[in-house]
Write a structure and sequence with these properties.
about 450 residues; 9-stranded mixed beta sheet; alpha/beta; 6-stranded parallel beta sheet; 15 strands; globular
Length: about 450
């Protein structure tokens, strides 16, 4: 890892460790399998820390594709509605029941899943090989570092970090261990994304100097100025959920899926969607250890002061890279995640398909599923489990995740410092991991 200035280490070392939390983001249905592929003793034993809608969606994929043995689940929420969709009932008890019911339907013997509210208890278990940390961003660093120090391999959801300094702390923990660590940037396991990035790397659209990436609009509405606190629901440990974040009165729109719209816990849609779309550019350009030299905000919109949601609702920013290349990231419907414009044409990909300036650029475009019929989320977790067994580096290591998350954090820094001034830019020293001649902006890195 790069050597950091003493002042930065002092900020990193002040991280206040506490306890645990919950999770978030999108679920999938699944078909059950008739039998396990391997004997239980030959399987990687994993625990899920965070069983919200993203955690439950990944649990279902692990079971559907028989990737590992789930032996424990953990969450600060016993169980409730109120996640991304109001009818989704998630938390540690629903997760335990789902896992136990699934294994009970198998024809071979099964081990009941343990349930915890404190992730430290999970890490104490010597029989757990790896953990999936599917929790809000402000908990990614503490849980991942604690898990690494406890000898566990770690799959941590994207964006890898809550701040640049958190990401450095995570890299330091990895570099001091022999642990296998994967960032949940599942586009790295998407055959279509790989096809597009390969086309750019191979020069099929010529020299690329411009990239356009998208981040989605806010998909939830929170209370405006004058909002009132609410009683903490029974079965939800709000103090543990807050953990290292500032103490704030409880409101249901502060937690569960909606955490991402408050700067105390996340970076808004820039870190949510941007951790995917901007990572595609880094992948296509071989920039996994390359950062911008400057970044500027062209536009930013916010809700009225005093609203519970305080992250930017709409943004446009530009990052300039060492070769003069410009990445423009803007809010919009995420039909197109990333567009690459070259001297000989363009190619773009997103949730609604992949298109190009010349149809010949799309010859050989693969299906979205891999050779084993797995969606990108499942293939990404399978890559992690394979690497746990082989001790190889996964496709989205913590280094990969840190570099892409850092770009998003830099964008938030400039957006919050200069939300209305397109001529203002912040200069970035990638090697030192700090802004040049801007102490106030550097304060935002931690």
């Amino acid at each position: 890892m790069r050597k950091l200035p003493p002042a930065i280490w002092s900020v990193m070392n002040r991280v206040n460790r506490r306890h645990f939390l919950v999770a978030s983001s999108a679920v999938a249905t699944m078909a059950t399998r008739s039998a396990w592929a391997n004997a239980a003793g030959d399987r990687v034993r994993v625990a899920f820390i965070g069983t919200g809608n993203q955690g439950m969606g990944l649990i279902k994929r692990v079971l559907q594709h028989d990737l590992a043995q789930i032996v424990a689940v953990c969450d600060v929420n016993e169980g409730s509605y109120g996640y991304k969709a109001e009818d989704h009932f998630y938390g540690r008890e629903p997760a335990k029941k789902f896992v136990d019911d699934y294994y009970a339907r198998q024809k071979t013997g099964y081990e009941k899943c343990s349930v915890y509210s404190d992730y430290l208890k999970v890490l104490e278990r010597k029989d757990i090989d790896a953990v999936f940390a599917i929790v809000p961003d402000h908990w990614h660093s503490d849980i991942s570092v604690d898990a690494i120090n406890a000898g566990k391999d770690v799959y941590c959801e994207k964006p890898l970090s809550f701040t640049v300094r958190d990401g450095q702390r995570m890299l330091d923990a990895v570099s001091s261990s022999d642990r296998v660590c994967q960032t949940g940037s599942h586009e790295r396991s998407n055959p279509i994304t790989r096809f597009v990035c390969d086309a750019v790397r191979e020069g099929k659209i010529g020299t690329v100097k411009k990239f356009i990436t998208k981040v989605g609009y806010n998909n939830k509405v929170g209370p405006g100025p004058g909002w009132q606190s609410m009683p903490v629901p029974t079965g939800f440990d709000y103090e543990q959920w807050l953990g290292p974040a500032p103490k704030q009165p409880y409101h249901q729109d502060r937690c569960l899926y909606r955490f991402r719209f408050n700067y105390d816990y996340s970076g808004g849609q820039i870190t949510n969607f941007g951790a995917h779309s901007n990572d595609m550019v880094h992948w296509a350009m071989n920039w996994d250890d390359v950062g911008p030299v400057s970044i500027r905000c062209l536009d930013a919109k916010f809700l009225p002061k005093g609203s519970l949601f305080n992250t930017a609702t709409e943004t446009v920013f530009e990052a300039t890279y060492p070769g003069g290349e410009v990445l423009r990231c803007e809010s919009g419907p995420e039909m197109v995640q990333a567009r690459f414009e070259g001297s000989n044409g363009w190619i773009q990909t997103g949730y609604k398909g992949t298109t190009a300036s010349d149809p010949s650029l799309l010859e050989g475009l693969p299906e979205k599923k891999d050779d084993m019929g797995r969606d990108p989320h499942s293939a990404h977790m399978a890559n992690f489990i394979d690497c746990v067994k082989s001790r190889q580096t996964p496709v989205a290591s913590f280094g990969v995740g840190h570099n892409s998350a850092t770009l998003c954090h830099l964008a938030n820094a400039v957006i919050r410092r200069f939300p209305k001034h397109g001529d203002e830019s912040l200069r970035w020293n990638h090697e030192q991991q700090e802004f040049i001649d801007n102490a106030k902006a550097n304060e935002m890195l931690g």
